[in-house]
Amino acid sequence: MTTKEIDVLLVGGGVMSATLGTILNKLDPSLKLTMVERLDQVAHESTDGWNNAGTGHAGYCELNYTPQDENGDVEVNRALAINANFEVSLQLWSALIGSGDLPAPAQFINTTPHISFVWGEDNVEFLRKRWEKLSAHHLFAGMEYSEDHEVLSQWMPLVMKGRNPDDKIAATRIPFGSDVDFGSLTRNLVSSLEKRDQFELLLSNEVSELKKSKSGKWIVKLKDRVSGKSQTIKAGFVFLGAGGGALPLLQKSHIDESKGYGGFPVSGQWLVCQDEDTIKQHHAKVYGKAAIGAPPMSVPHLDTRIINGKPALLFGPFAGFTTKFLKTGSKLDLFKSMRSNNLLPMMDVGIHNMDLTKYLISEVMQSHEDRMESLREYFPNAQSKNWTLAQAGQRVQIIKKEGSAGGKLEFGTELVAAKDGSLAALLGASPGASVAAQAMIEVIERCLASRLDARLDAQLEGGWKNRLKEWIPSYGESLIDNRELLMSTRENTLSVLGLNKA
């Protein structure tokens, strides 16, 4: 069996691998890149439009990014960080439209106002504090706040129609929020990569073996899921961007940094509107507060979506309990991931999160009318006959070792990298795809740092840092601290992406 030698192996055909492959190709077109995907098409798991919220996560409407501390103060640091990171994605997409690597923006991103909506005295007070704190920062300039029913009726007519005029409610709005079809985005990125001589896409292939050679390169055995044939690839760098499948692959690598990590899988479902007249009456992403005991990924929202070019209206997600790591995975995934080095952390998380487990099981047991009652808190006049249940994607939340035997459940994303930088894996979910550009830049900075200052071939000016600055003008600077830079880059991205047409 011959062994193919490449520079970079991208495992998983989702938005993360596509973004990393795109950036690396722009930095050095001579790099040999191979993407391997276990399904017969890319962007069909978590990246697919129906398998995620499609929200351009910028902290505008997601209340879980701004928790209250024990004194009632609203913490905004995470919202600021996520907003700044999303701006990096917007810059990259804008540049790729300019270079012809992405099509017209409406094919993957559309203006959709981001609204936070709450009811009850305490929640209204929280939202007011949140607005006061966020709107004072340049990243959230333009955020509007109102408790006026007439104003709110203009922002979200479906939400307000049929609502008691005496209800104590409030909302904030960002007009230039976005809905992103990450599936379409990814398919276009991969399509552009396929035009490059140094890129290869291997579909219906999965990693069966992953081991480090004495030379420092990775020997990766692939198995074709259709023909059953195997092939071997030797790669200088391996990126595991396989969504829920990243943890088992990381464990196959046996790197020291993988020890102690486990996964807590969560499934999701949407209520999907079938009535076109209703769909046309709503144009916003309306986010509320998560129920007590609910995981952050289950924050309810009534969403305008554009998926594969077609408008849709979704409500959810409704979380559920599962043992599968992928939508197309196995019910044995959770059990197969258990190791001697992660068993205690996983047991500890299980013991201390029984309320969460009970909540997820209760979500699964809901009837259609139970779910409709949840919807009517956001859309009082919703009719049961107009909505059907659809399966969303799988998420694997991170379990990591804490202390000698304890474990911690986390709901963010985390980059796990070998100390020599030869392999990296992205674990976790939210905010996920929205911050793909910044996440992949961090992969490059941690794993390919020696090349950031390296000179490229004679046809390209400067090193990788200079090239990154060309594609992402804010690279190397803080958008949180630099108001002028934020305003100039945002003005450009909103214009190029058509998000200023609110």
Please bin the fraction of helical residues. Answer: 25-40%
Structural class: alpha+beta
The major pleated sheet works out as: 10 strands, mixed
* Average of per-residue pLDDT values: 93
C-alpha end-to-end distance: 57 Å
Uncertain residue segments: 455-460
Assembly state: single chain
Q: Quick one: overall form?
A: globular
Beta percentage is 25-35%
What does the radius of gyration come to? Answer: 23 Å
What is the number of strand segments? Answer: 20
**How many distinct helices?**
15
Question: Could you provide a short overview of the structure?
Answer:
The chain has about 500 residues and is α+β, with helices and mostly antiparallel strands. The chain has helices at about 15-25, 75-100, 120-135, 150-155, 155-160, 180-195, 245-255, 275-280, 335, 345-350, 355-365, 370-375, 435-445, 465-470, 485-495; strands at about 5-10, 35, 110, 115-120, 145, 170-175, 180, 200, 205-210, 220-225, 230-240, 260-275, 285, 300-305, 310-320, 385-390, 395-400, 405-410, 415, 425-430. It contains 15 helices and 20 strands.
Which structural traits does this protein have?
502 residues; alpha+beta; ten-stranded mixed β-sheet; eight-stranded mixed β-sheet; 20 strands; 25% strand; globular
SSE diagram, text form:
Elements (H helix, E strand, L loop, with lengths): L2 E9 L3 H13 L5 E4 L40 H22 L10 E3 L2 E6 L1 H15 L8 E3 L2 H7 L1 H4 L8 E6 L3 E3 L1 H13 L4 E4 L2 E8 L5 E7 L5 E11 L5 H8 L8 E12 L2 H5 L4 E3 L13 E7 L2 E12 L11 H4 L6 H10 L1 H11 L3 H9 L10 E5 L3 E8 L3 E5 L2 E5 L5 E6 L7 H12 L16 H8 L11 H14 L6
Parallel strand pairs: 1-2, 1-11, 2-8, 4-13, 11-20
Antiparallel strand pairs: 3-7, 4-6, 5-6, 9-10, 10-11, 12-15, 12-16, 12-17, 13-14, 14-15, 17-18, 19-20
Helix pairs in contact: 1-6, 1-13, 2-13, 2-15
